[in-house]
Amino acid sequence: MPWALPGDEAGLLALATDYPYAAPDESYLFALGEARGLSAAGWRAYDFGPRVPVLAHGSNRSPQQLFRKFGRDAEIPVTYGRLAGFDVVYAAHVARYGAVTSTLAAVPGVAARVALTWLTPAQLAFMHETERMNYTYGHLPAGCFQPEQGPAPAVTAVYVGNHGPLALDGGLVGLAAVSAEGRPHPALWQREIQARLAGEHHPGEALEPLLLGRIRSPAARRAFEGRLARHQRALALEGFTVVQRLDGEIL
């Protein structure tokens, strides 16, 4: 279920170049459409109830994106922690809003600082709709996520990109917006990865018209994603258990 894109060019370009969007440095409660901090005592007292912890390695950690998807009436705890053995990297996929999206890659010795969104069953079902066709929902190995605040998840659920990680110069590319210890490959900001890909596939063309064209034309976006297929690396996530492909197939 897609959320509405802005009608102005500046808003569209911000979606394409600012991904994965601003997020607080500390765990927060998304409520009344904004991020609200809680003390350590507040987190201990918070009732997580039947909520499902889902790892947010890309835009879903941002209150801007949560607002776009759920509006101001939703309440969603977002807690940070350390994900051992994985990095957040660019996927060989372009979203309908023009951004090169993220996925996970198993990288021994790396620990990425990522967030958990704690979703009610109804919120999880809606989140599935927003991730449909581009991600597979499943579980990471037990114990790989160590929380800074909030409870430790018994099971860490995650959306993993169906298109596989993007490889440049033979290696993975991390998201500079996501900090990671021991990252052996380079990390780029969204505007940097966009400029790099534009220079390789559309030399001499201005970046902003290219981005607007992909947002406005699904055919142009699919054509560019076809070019990205040559950069795609096979997905290898040891210990990842598939629960549901979001094209509707339950495994």
Structure description:
With 251 residues, this protein is an alpha+beta fold. 27% of the residues lie in helices and 32% in strands. Strands 1, 2, 3, 4, 5, 6, 7, 8, 12 and 14 form a ten-stranded mixed sheet that branches. Strand 1 (28-31) and strand 2 form a beta hairpin. The mean pLDDT is 93.
> Tell me, what's the shape?
globular
Give me the secondary-structure category. Answer: alpha+beta
Helix content: 25-40%
Question: What is the number of helical segments per DSSP (H or I, 4+ residues)?
Answer: 7
Could you describe the largest sheet, including whether it forms a barrel?
A: 10 strands, mixed
Q: From the alpha carbons, calculate the radius of gyration and give it in angstroms.
A: 18 Å
What is the string of helix and strand elements? Answer: HEEHEHEEHEEEEEEEEHHHE
